[in-house]
Design a protein that fits this description.
The protein has helices at about 1-25, 30-55, 80-95, 100-120, 140-155, 165-185, and strands at about 60-65, 70, 75, 130. Helix 3 packs across helix 5. It is built from six helices and four strands.
């Protein structure tokens, strides 16, 4: 809504840092393996995004706006944190219902794609990023899914315990928030 639009744009990067911090504070088993896996997801996602922005080949032609704060080579730092949050939370959501790695990996990646489909509608409205032709191409979703599979596989392979109630709740709160933004925008509710 016009009254709160600028405020939400301003606080978005800080909110993503707080959300990731909140889930990590509630993580139960801290060890070198957990730190290495989560740090690898952060670093690999940033590198992938840098390549994506620079070449337009991975996700399509897009550029980050100012809505996500400080950037490294045209990619906001919080993007790496968001990948960590989404992988960790989606893995935790699915692992609540099954202990089998295959369904957790595929289910976690599928949840992340649903999240991305919704987020792609919200991102331009919040000056997060925008694709050259407004709608992301199919390869955006293919690469997202492949990365989500890889990262969820790493969580399972290294047996990182993602049973974290706040992570699950924060995932669904963000998802609901984005649904609200899409509905308000679609129906021009101000």
């Amino acid at each position: 809504m016009p009254l709160t639009h600028d405020l939400f744009k301003l606080i978005t990067p800080y909110t993503l840092v707080l959300v990731t911090g909140a889930i990590l504070m509630h993580h139960k088993e801290w060890n070198i393996k957990t730190i290495a896996v989560l740090a690898s997801i952060f670093i690999l996602s940033i590198i992938t995004e840098i390549i994506g922005v620079a070449t337009g080949k991975l996700f399509g032609v897009y550029a980050y706006g100012q809505g996500l704060g400080i950037k490294i080579i045209d990619v906001p730092v919080v993007i790496g944190l968001n990948w960590v949050f989404l992988v960790y939370a989606s893995n935790g959501i699915i692992s609540k219902y099954t202990s089998k790695s295959g369904p957790i990996i595929i289910g976690g990646a599928s949840l992340m794609i649903l999240y991305d489909i919704l987020l792609e509608k919200v991102a331009p409205l919040m000056d997060m990023w925008e694709f050259l032709k407004n709608d992301p191409p199919i390869n955006n979703y293919v690469v997202w899914f492949l990365l989500a599979l890889l990262f969820n596989w790493a969580i399972q392979y290294f047996k990182i315990d993602t049973h974290n109630r706040p992570a699950r709740w924060l995932f669904f709160i963000q998802f609901g928030f984005f649904i609200g933004i899409v509905i308000l925008n679609e129906f021009n509710i101000n």
